[in-house]
Each structure stands twice: as C-alpha cells, then as structure tokens.
Design a protein that fits this description.
Order of helices and strands: HHHH
Largest sheet: none
Radius of gyration: 15 Å
Structural class: mainly alpha
Strand content: under 5%
Helix content: 55-70%
Number of helices: 4
Distance between the termini: 21 Å
Number of domains: 1
Shape: elongated
Length: 107
C-alpha cells in the first residue's frame, strides 16, 4: 500500500498536467522516481499517455484533409481530459491506473 506522500505526488503528476503538460509532471517524476516505485509507475504511465496522444493528435491533424480529423481531435481532447481526471483520482486512492489505448514506450 502506498504512503500518503506517494499517493499525493502521483496525483500531482496528473493534476499539474493541466497548467503545465510537460514541466510539472516531469519535475515530480524525476525527483521522486528513485524514492517511490508507485510514483515512478504513474510518471511512466503519464508520459506514455502524453506521447501516445501526441501521435494520435498528429494523425488526426493529417486526417483533417478528409474532414474526419476534426471529429477525431475533438474526441481525443475530451478523452484526454476525462482520462487524466480518472487517473488522478485512482492514483490518490492508491491504485495503479492504466490508460486505455496507449502505447507503452517507457517500461
């Protein structure tokens, strides 16, 4: 069971992603990943999510030519917000949340 500090820092990875999508979560992950396996897990999961959704967004941007890309980008934006909130809540509850539909680049 993760400690209260581990749960707080793992939640902050997701919460700070709203105003600072890269810098905030990266700082927490780099500072705490050696001290806590739980924070390390959530840091890796967040950055896999970020890279995957960047790739999906690039594909959606290319598909704007076919007009289907606009719908894809709207859906991706809504999913990113909802899944980030779910991950923040689950991490604060002490669970190891796995994002659906992401590619795990960092293992």
């Amino acid at each position: 069971m993760p400690t209260n500090d581990e749960r707080l820092f793992s939640m902050l990875i997701y919460v700070l992603s709203f105003p600072f999508p890269i810098l905030g979560p990266l700082l927490i992950w780099l500072l705490k990943r050696d001290e806590s396996e739980f924070v390390d897990y959530h840091g890796k999961e967040y950055f896999n999510f970020l890279v995957s959704y960047f790739i999906f967004g690039a594909i959606g941007t290319l598909l704007i030519i076919l007009l289907v890309g606009i719908v894809i980008l709207i859906i991706l934006g809504i999913m990113a917000i909802i899944l980030t909130i779910i991950a923040a809540v689950k991490s604060y509850q002490g669970e190891r949340y796995r994002f659906p539909f992401i590619i795990h680049f960092i293992k």
